Every structure is written in structure tokens, then in C-alpha cells.
Amino acid sequence: MSDSRTVAHGDAGARDAGPHGGTRAHAVVVGSGIGGLTAAVALHRRGWRVTVLERAASLGAVGAGIGLAPNALRALDVIGIGREIKELAAWQGDGGVRAPGGRWLSRSHSDLFAQRFGERLVMVHRALLIERIAARLPEGALRTGAPAELVDPGTAGGRRALVRTPRGDIEADLVVGADGIHSAVRRALFPGHPGPSYSGLTTWRTVVPAPARPFAPHESWGKGALWGTQPLKDGRIYAYAAATAPAGTHAPDSEKAELLRRFGDWHDPIPEILAATAPEGILRHDVHHMTTPLPAFHRGRTALLGDAAHAMAPTMGQGGNQAIEDGIVLAHHLPAHHLPAPDGAGRTGADRSGADPLGTGLAAYTADRLPRTTGIVRKSARVVRLVSLTSAPAVAVRDGLMILAGYGPGLALRTFDGIADWKPPQRTYADQARRPA
């Protein structure tokens, strides 16, 4: 990382004067995914000035579905949008896990999840969730078509961080690396870390019109493969699949043809959903996860969140949920509104008591988030191994255990104990939101 301190005139690096000679804190978020936007809104609610830099030309209708568990819904409550997202819940009634031929391996009910964890599971389109969170940002905070490079992570008690963009360099009190699984910010902070590795699974995702006949939401598990069919509030279906495959491979003809080969003879409504799927509407991605945890989720004035910090397999449905938690917890631990006044070298460090509030807050963020997310990464990896079983005896044992768990729905729900029952450190910012001029 080179270090140039030429800051674009009039850009977001400018400082706002605050009370007692302090300065209004400014955060630059690299990446406009779910976690980055959540962090930006939470920091804005606490009085920070935020700039979100997104490489893509627009947010667009990207992605497919995402399941929001009670832990993420409570986190969204903190920034004031939990209620409207909860209203999008579509799963009502029975559901569970099936075998490819249709036999139920485990049954559940939407009410049981709500009874145990306080909220229902909510399945939404990822683009809709991003749109709802981004709408809470102040005007001008989000910049699309803005690739960013971390030039200097800064030091918590000293110099500010530096981010390079096509419009010029930006100095920031805080940089949030929310740039995904192949995060350049992570590589800049921890160049010796091995990063994510291939899990052995590849995934397909699509959103299609609902089938003609009613169905119970389900995942279906076969030999080295699974299929999921989940309803959305708008009447469409979010369908997803995973299967063992060599890394980097693609279908020789089309991904729809590949799905038909792998899942076309599975139980209803899977064949009908595949028939309604447009080939161009299928997303395929290899699943990578970070089974070797980072030493910390911060360095200097730069923090990581979401896949940049703890990429995990989707087998527990917690990737986006944990990114939302990250954004809320990060904002909670950081000082609100203003930092101590800069010294003659432009450094903001200790307050009048001699404490470094930014460094203390970032250390607390790592202490909160690293153990929790490491445990969920490992639990998700264990489920990957169960999905990846291909021998008939091993699959029979796995399915038998699911049937046994299905006799007591509470037993299956306990898988999410310690995950879905998480509560944010602060209930809401709605009553304390301040927006300095």
C-alpha cells in the first residue's frame, strides 16, 4: 500500500467542525451489499457522515432470495426497518426436509420457529432488501460506479485512513471493508491470510412464478445434492440448489440443462419449477468459505464485515444475517457523532481522558464478532459435509437421523439455538438519531 495524502478538493474527505473543537466523524464504506449498507445506515443514525462506494454502475436487481432469521430481523429493528421487512413473511404452515422421492424426513411449522425464537423466518428478494436499506441513507451518500482501493488503513490513535477512487483520494476516520468474499480490503489488511477456500459445493439460484398447485416450503436432500423451494410475498418462488462439483466448472450446454439432469426426476413441484425457469435467470456460484479465521476484524482505522470478514457456506442460511449483525454491532461500539479535534498533524486520537475511543470501539467489535461468526462458519461447514455425502450407507444414516429429529420438532430447532436467539446490544436508534448539519 502506497500512501498519498492528496485529497480531492471538496470531496468527502472534508471535515465538519463539532462541539468542543471536535470533528464530525466520517466513515467510508467500500461495497454496497447488505452488510455494508446496514453499517452505513447505523453509523448515519449515530451521527456519522457516511460515504458508500460501490464498484457496480447501479445497485440493480441483483441476486435472488435471502432468508432472514430472527437474529437479523432484530438487528434491522435497530435501524428502523425491521417491521416492514417482517411484513414480507410468506411461509405460513407446514414445511420441512424431504428426500428426492418426496418422503418427508423432517417436518416443521412456521409457528414453531416464532414460538422458540420470537420471530418468523422471512424470505425476501435480495434486491428488495438492499433497496429498503439503501433508502435510509442520506442523499448523496451512495456512489455507484466508484471502485475504491484502500491505500492506507490508518492508525486508530493517529493518522486517518486513505481510500483511492477515480474522483480522487478520500481521507476517513473509518473505512469499512464490505467488499465481499474476494475482498481487496481484507487482502490489504492481512496479506498473509489464506483467505476463502472452495467448499466442494456449487450452487444455483433463481426466482420464478409460483407453481399452479400449492406446496409446502421445503429443502430436499439427495446424494451430494439438495434443492430448496421457498415462497416470496409477491407470489413468486425462490428456488435454490447445491451439489458437489469440481471448482470452476460450468454446464457444457446451459445451467438449466444441468439442473434438469441433476434434479429433473425429483418430487413435485421441482419439475414444474424447472420447466418455468428461464436459462438466463439462473445464477451459479461456487461456494467458498473461510474456515481459517482472521486474527481480527480490524486493523488501524479499518474494519471488515460480512463475507470480507467471515465468508461462510449458505447451509445454515446465515451469511447475510451475520453481515447485518456486523453492521449493527460495529456502529454500536464506535463513538457517536464526533471524534476529538485533530492535532497539528491532522491526527484524531485520544479524548480529554486520554482514551482512544475509536481504537477501543474497533477492538470491542472484533471481540464481539470474531468468536460468534467463527462458530457459525464451522457449523455451516459441518452441514456442507452432510450435504456432500454420496455413498448410499452414509446417506441412509444421515436421513435416518433427520427422521429421528423430525419426531420432535424442538430437536431440529435446537440447531439454531445460540444463533437465531441473538439480540442486538442496543434495541433501537430511532429515539436518539441526530443529524448534524
Summarize the structure in words:
- This protein is of the alpha+beta class and 437 residues long.
- The protein has one domain: 3-Layer(bba) Sandwich (FAD/NAD(P)-binding domain).
- It has 13 helices and 21 strands.
- The chain has helices spanning 34-45, 70-78, 82-86, 110-117, 126-134, 184-189, 255-263, 270-276, 307-310, 319-333, 357-387, 392-406, 409-413, and strands spanning 16-17, 23-24, 26-30, 49-53, 65-68, 94-98, 104-109, 122-125, 142-143, 149-152, 161-165, 168-172, 174-177, 197-209, 218-221, 225-231, 236-244, 283-289, 298-299, 302-304, 338-339.
- The strands form five sheets. A seven-stranded mixed β-sheet has the order 7-6-15-16-17-14-18.
- α1 (34-45) links the parallel β3 and β4.
- α1 packs parallel to α10.
- The longest helix has 31 residues, at 357-387.
- The radius of gyration is 23 Å and the shape is globular.
Brief synopsis:
The chain is 31% helix and 23% strand. With 437 residues, the chain is of the alpha+beta class.
